[in-house]
């Protein structure tokens, strides 16, 4: 018997087929993974990792988060992406610790430039974060005591689908804003995922892209590339239908088979991702 072949359940139903509710078994009751993706100044990466990785190990231990530091992505770039996988609370806790580490390093090295929080978000989600006439964003600014700027829509292309949300304020203020920003982004993502589940159940086995169901017009298939691209690297498509490993493979240019990592280890793959988990 092939262990990779899904076996029928006790009821005799193929788990790959829609259930009574119209959802695929693989999606039902499984919360989608929506990581917090940050951009941090390259000069602070060393401080975030710490001597022999002790600082980042302590961070992951305290927050129970998985942290991917893409330290060799786009060599020479002024900023590096960090991806945090955890619960919303775990992501926020890890974000706070990273901001505190950067602020301390800036103070120790007498860096006077303000260090903003930068969050990456797919363009298809940003409109719902902003809200009608910018009301959502204005409310978050007022309640958190921050100033929030979102990179221009003109910066979005077939190569780069992400927009940068820049939050300026104290560490505490930025953390309050992060919680609300990510809450809105997760809500938008969850709604898109629910729509995918619904239509997958109704039209199982058919190509949803061909049917033109999704108003965003985005490909629902994963790309083999990274959003943090080099000039010759195309972008990934936002893909709520993909599972955890496949979705990350699209984000960071790795196949699902290559998406496995080890605790407190440095990846030797071409993506050069430092991955730490607890």
Automatic annotation (TrEMBL):
Superkingdom of source: Eukaryota
Any one Pfam family match given in the protein's UniProt record, by short name: KH_1
SMART domains listed in its UniProt record: KH
InterPro entries for this protein: KH_dom (IPR004087), KH_dom_type_1 (IPR004088), KH_dom_type_1_sf (IPR036612)
Gene3D superfamilies documented for this protein: K Homology domain, type 1
Record-linked CDD domains: KH-I_IGF2BP2_rpt1
Protein name (record): Insulin-like growth factor 2 mRNA binding protein 2a
